[in-house]
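#onboarding

Welcome to the new folks! Below is a worked example of what a typical request in this channel looks like: someone posts a single protein sequence, and someone else replies with the predicted structure as tokens. Don't worry about understanding the tokens yet, we'll cover that in week two.

Example request:
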Amino acid sequence: MNTPYCTAVRLRRREVDALREAIAEAGAQLTALDRRTAELRRTVNVERRLAAHFGALPDDLYFRRMRLEHDRLVGQRAAAERELERLRDQARETFAALRMLEEAAERHRSEEQRMVANAEQSAADDRAAAVFARASA
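Example response:
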């Protein structure tokens, strides 16, 4: 049974689905950033060992560039975490609004069913009263 709330419920469900996808993408982005950071650390450790072994290689610029890359990745991760938290907050709010609309739609359906049942009962009572009145006359 359609209610005045059905369209709003469908729209909110779409919003929740879109937010669910966005949250999954943000989580994947965090995972990718973590993987790149770990890979960078492994590479730097290998390069440090090689530089220590072959002391004549100039390594200051390389390590400075790797440090900047690491700092950039850490900054991106912090931004991605903030975005993920923002999406989660928005999803909570949207889901709460969806639940309110679903409950309102259910109350509307229940009220309509109650009104139909009352009308059916009244009609049955009227028929019974008419039969009783004819039988009494």
